[in-house]
Amino acid sequence: MASSRTLPAHENCNHTKYWLTCEQYEELIAACGNRCQTCGLPGYDNPPHRKLFIDHDYGYGIWAVRGLLCGRCNNKLKWGEPAPEWATNYLADPWFKRAFAEMGVSIERQTEPPVGSYFDSPRGTRWVRTANHWQNESFARSTRDWHGMCRDFSPADLRNIKVATFTSRPVKVVLDPKQPDEIAALLRRHLSPQQLSKVLFFLGRDD
């Protein structure tokens, strides 16, 4: 299904919601001549903001941009319903498949990395793989399962996940009570936010 929001060209760069750069957005507009890719309606005739809608494939994620549509055609494409005949050619050649093929990036979902892996998103937030989900280190209530990570982040970006590696041989760590800062740094490096919170709770601290 297409997005229901009209995106201004460069008034506030809302196309970045779909992980499109300004250059990619301009290329999309130029490639279709600023006309709906199914009916040909000019973008300046498309209400309410006189811009075409960015259409994406919900089956893959918000980054899976198929092209640009007018509001009428955008609303007629429904996720989970058979593709209408008038959109067959458009849906058969979505922009994102061509773009990622040119980058040499697979659009198929990767195997979920192990616990302890982390991902620094392009927006500056770090996501850490815990036993139950992916935790946003900046926002305690913000979590995603692997499906959500693959839906909301481009596969080109997810290639940058730092995968945790484990050794079969135990590593002996010596904790010196006289070096509390080193102990704290070690805990933060190896414990998930939830585990660290529990340790601080048992220690009677809230920082």
Give a written overview of the molecule.
This protein is elongated. It has 207 residues and is an alpha+beta fold. Strands 3-4-5-6 form a four-stranded antiparallel beta sheet. The model is unreliable at 3-8 (pLDDT under 50). It has helices spanning 22-31, 71-76, 88-92, 95-103, 146-152, 155-158, 180-190, 193-202, and strands spanning 53-56, 65-69, 118-120, 126-129, 134-136, 143-144. The protein folds into three domains: 14-103, His-Me finger endonuclease fold, CATH 3.40.1800; 109-166, no CATH class; 169-207, no CATH class.
Q: Given the structure, what is the number of helices?
A: 8
CA radius of gyration: 22 Å
Would you report the number of β strands?
Answer: 6
Query: Topology as H/E string?
Result: HEEHHHEEEEHHHH
Distance between the termini: 44 Å
Number of domains: 3
Class of the largest domain, according to the CATH hierarchy? Alpha Beta
What topology does this entry show?
Layout: H1 22-31, E1 53-56, E2 65-69, H2 71-76, H3 88-92, H4 95-103, E3 118-120, E4 126-129, E5 134-136, E6 143-144, H5 146-152, H6 155-158, H7 180-190, H8 193-202
Antiparallel strand pairs: 1-2, 3-4, 4-5, 5-6
